[in-house]
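Lab notebook, page 48
Experiment: co-folding of the full assembly
Goal: obtain a model of how the components sit together before planning crosslinking
Operator: M.T.
Materials (sequences as entered):
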Amino acid sequence: MNVKREKLTTLSFFLSPMAVMVVLFYLVPLIMTVYISFTRMRNWNVSKYLTEFVGFYNYHRLLYMFQHDPTFKAVLLTTVVFVGITLIINVFGGLALALATFFIEDKPASAFRLLWLLPRMSPIAVYSLVWYYFFHGSEIGTLNSILMKLGVISQPIPWGQIVPWGAWSIIIFVNGLVGVSFGMIVFTSALNQIPKELVIAARVDGASSWQISRRILIPMIRWHLLYVLTWQFLSLLTTYPHLFLLVQWDLVNGDYGTTLALYVFNTAFGMGEQDQGLAAAAAVLLSVIGIIGGFVTLKVLKFERMMKRPRGDF
Amino acid sequence: MRARVIWLVALVLLGVVASGCISGGGGTQTSSAKIQLTGDFTKDAVAVGKALQQNGISEVRFSAWGSGDPNSVMRVYGIVEAARRINRIWEKNGIKVKITITDTHYVASFQDAYKEYLSKQPLGQAGDFFVNSYAFLPTLADEGYILDITDYAKAYKSVIDDFYPSLIEASKFKGRLYGLPQDTEARPLYIRKDVAARIGLNLNGLDGKVKNGEFTWSDVYMWAKKAKESGVEWGLIHRKGSAHPDLIQFIFAFGGKLYDPNTGKLVVDVPAVYKWLYVEWKFARDGLLPKDIMSWDWAKQIHPTVVEGKTLFDIGGTWYWTEWQTKQYYNGRSLTPEEVRKWFYYTLFPAGEKGDKPVTLSQPFIWMINSKAGQQNPKYDELKDVYHELAFLMVVKASDPDINAIHSVISAHLPVRKAAAKLIKDEKWLNDLKNLNLDLDPAVKDNIKDIVKATVNPINAEFLANVSYMLEYTHLAPAHPKYPALADIFKEAVDRVLRGEMTPKDAVNFIIQKVKADSELAQNVEIVGKIPENWKFPQ
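Observation: model returned without errors.
Model output:
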């Protein structure tokens, strides 16, 4: 009994910093969000609205809006397309970059990776502004200007206003470039952990880079693939800053440039009123969607099988 | 285990409630010191100064938050100047207290400034003085974020009476006064004189015809079409976005309304909204107005197109007059005052059709006082009323006719006081302003010297005097907390009809559907009237 208690004390000691962090930064905000979603909280007026309970009013209002807003169908479709395609670009783009740099010299590989990190490192407003001027639908847009000078087009093309694919292409492109570096870093780190002997042996046996990648490297970083896929899925489901700016600046069509996360943000904060109660309800719904989505991803990719203890080691 | 979980949840909830109590706790404090204001400014300032001195205060620290175009910096420097003038009164009367303006926070977007104030005020981190659109005043007043100055203002009736009454009304919420007007503006229809001459549009007396309702939007359409046929790129350019409520002038010009004072609700006036959208649709379909204008760039497209003479008409604002003189919109340079006068004619926004009236639209800015003004100073709980009275006196001082007139001249906004309106017609005073030979704080002079150099001249003063009459025709966007949401929907609808994605009829139905989709918005908006059958434009 004493040994058990001692073990528990030791465990608690080592786990406590993380446990405190989890409680403070995950559990408390979660409970607060759920709590606020049942109040009439708005305009940041905590003292006035914190105890003004409205039951499921915010949820009801939100779901009613989902049902009756004529633009909501476009928003849902945009979310599916945006998350789906950007996720593929982020995961497989990251993997391709990691594999490509794996087979080249260290120095040029580092420089190449740094280049791909630039979108992530740039301030969101600056980065978005670059693409705003690049894709602008008039002759001031860089892309239009180049194509007109080359004689490819005679009139500027309003890229972001061509619905749905023009708008979708821009938001996917801009966010895809930002997200691809995350996968690249994780996969590079994972690839560097693989014993070099395996690659050298394969080379000696005459395997090509593609065969090495397919037969050795990718199977050995399956865990990382799953991690990046799940992480990026949840991240894309809730991201909105770049989209917000591109829509706000009228670069892309409002309906087909707006995902569920941005729709929620605009509904709660973008229309003059700062409605934290409604925003909290929307955040809870988004979290539920995220949890379900994450769970499905892990199931589909057979997470449990990967987590099984190795046989014969114990 | 279960008990522990219950304890944990209880602890978290306690934390949530406690955080609310902590941030809102200050509101119940009462202060004992209070000065009875008399309306004699010097006497009141001295009384407040003495009260502070007797309580051991030697310095009062305030901050001023403002926003707007680059030429409107007097929105914060007016407070700096007011502080200097009160400091001087105290000095002359041997009072050893000094007001220091610690921060002049000035940003371009007034919406962003409002959002920042809204989120920081409950935390006690917002500016003591906040100048912003009157449209936000109801929300700020309702939440208790700004000071009710009704009682203080009673002693200053003569000052209040010098403001234009409609602007004082715009500073009220539920009959109580929450600020003093800082500026206002009109939104003229600019006409390029050179293009007009080329197509035979006689501008002599046109403003009179617009005033009488003889020159309507059908005439605007006809002349815009002639301009286009003569080789001018566009017939009409207008502003974009929902934060800039210019386009709702169409609703008023077609005899419609946006707000019902009897019910306190916003109104979607279907016939007027339909006519507005039809006009936009028609102009865009005939290539007279860019169909993608709502996504045009302000600095690279909208202004350059107007100042380079690529359009006949432009729906703009009075502040354009000096903005064109300070921003480099014309082939990489700004316009000279002479060029602006030579190229631009201005009238009211014409009536929608015969029988309607011409209009303009104003969005007055108001000097508001934080309900926690002065809280960064010593003995705040004890001297709260005194600090608030001092803040009120500063706003009164910042409304001095000369400060208001300086702001008007350098930013091309209209004066809010009759005394300021008189001053801008005074040539000697204008000359003194041009040479900065005025009794102003050196820091203020330093900050406005470049703007003064570029904008102070008889041409601009004459422009302000000439457009002042427009205030008689002005309408205000509704000061309703839900108006921004409705404005966003209008903007979406305009964009769709301009691009040809919707007919005007579809767009009206879209607006109605969007309003009804949000139950809270639907409760605050009345939908009145029907789409007129067989309505024709142009007539």
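Interpretation: The CA atoms of residues 114 and 132 of chain B lie 7 Å apart.
Next step: discuss with group before ordering constructs.
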